[in-house]
Design goal:
- The protein has 124 residues and is α+β, with helices and mostly antiparallel strands.
- It has one domain.
- It is 40% helix and 15% strand.
- Strands 1, 2, 3, 4 and 5 form a 5-stranded mixed beta sheet that branches.
- The longest helix is centred in the C-terminal third of the chain and has 17 residues.
């Protein structure tokens, strides 16, 4: 594992927050024989900084999340990433696209449900 410097759970190097989901638990989390998770953040710079610390290459960036192999998921958590659910990650990614920030994991699913209702109200 690369050398990791962090300040505590959920934050590293100045208070940045990165999240990593449990997509590896589902069939969609399998890729070429590997179990994968999504790693997301409010800011791409924070995301790239933590990704570099766990040995991820910049070219592996998917344009929003990093797809992180299961062993590196543990490294990310040790480096301060907050573990979230696959469902929370999906809602937080949508919120970032809409509002510019992921929001809190414990509010993610409720925010998404409300956003979806508002979106569908305009269509009916």
């Amino acid at each position: 594992m690369p050398c990791l410097y962090f300040e505590g759970h959920g934050t590293y190097l100045g208070g940045m927050t990165v999240y990593i989901d449990d997509m590896y638990r589902y069939a969609i989390g399998e890729f070429r024989g590997m179990r994968m998770s999504h790693m997301i953040a409010d800011d791409d710079a924070e995301l790239h900084a933590l990704a570099a610390r766990i040995g991820m290459k910049p070219e592996w960036f998917q344009g929003d999340p990093y797809d992180v192999p299961l062993p590196r998921r543990e490294w990310a958590i040790q480096a301060g990433a907050i573990a979230i659910t696959y469902r929370q990650a999906g809602a937080m990614r949508r919120r970032r696209a809409v509002e510019g920030a992921c929001g809190a994991p414990d509010q993610a699913v409720a925010w998404y449900a409300a956003w979806l209702r508002r979106s569908l109200d305009g269509l009916i």
